[in-house]
Amino acid sequence: MTTGWLAVIDMQRVFADPDSPWATPRFAEAAAGVRRLLPAFGNRVTFTRFVAPRTPDGAWQAYYARHPFALQPPSARLWELTDEFTPDARHVLDAPTFGKWTPELAHRAAPEGRLVLTGVSTDCCVLSTALAAADASVEVLVPADACAGVDDDSHAKALHVLDLYRPLIRVTTVAELLAG
Questions:
Q1: Alpha carbons 158 and 4: distance in angstroms, whole number
Q2: pLDDT (tens digit, 9 = 90+) per residue, 84-133?
Q3: Contact at 8 Å (CB) between 143 and 172?
Q4: Where are the beta strands (DSSP E) in the chain?
Q5: Is residue 143 a contact partner of residue 177, using CB atoms and an 8 Å limit?
Q6: Residue 1 above 60 pLDDT?
Q7: What average pLDDT does the chain have?
Q8: How far apart are CA 139 and CA 136, in angstroms?
Q9: Nearest-10 crossing angle of helices 152-163, 127-135
């Protein structure tokens, strides 16, 4: 079994649906990588969901003025995890922020001090979570083939930036993680 805690970032309908304004083109490829990793982590998996706040404040007001379709309650269909992940989602963490490094995720990752980050999008929520976790002294591993960006170029750039934080953050692959 692989060590650490697996965080599956925002594998939600809003990012999977090709007709969504927030569609992630390689969502299915990232999902395949996540599925390969799930058995290796057993019950040490947290799924996260990006959800809109009830009332945006500060800079989020301008953000939601640009994306008014997203101002829906956490129970809205667009915020649901995709069907393939719903059965595996024993631990689900909701956050109205890009970064998912919350006290709850920190508590789960703390015993082993290692966090594997997968999901979407590499250039937003994965990146934001990785930087905060690294600042909290947690080793972060990001399997590139279990993540997807808003486009291929942004994905590659985000992976490059993440890899600049070695040894705190290390970009890897699903195969490397499973090989131990």
A1: 22
A2: 999 999 999 999 999 999 999 999 988 888 999 999 999 999 999 999 99
A3: yes
A4: 5-9, 45-50, 92-95, 114-120, 139-143, 147-148, 169-172
A5: yes
A6: no
A7: 96
A8: 9
A9: 10
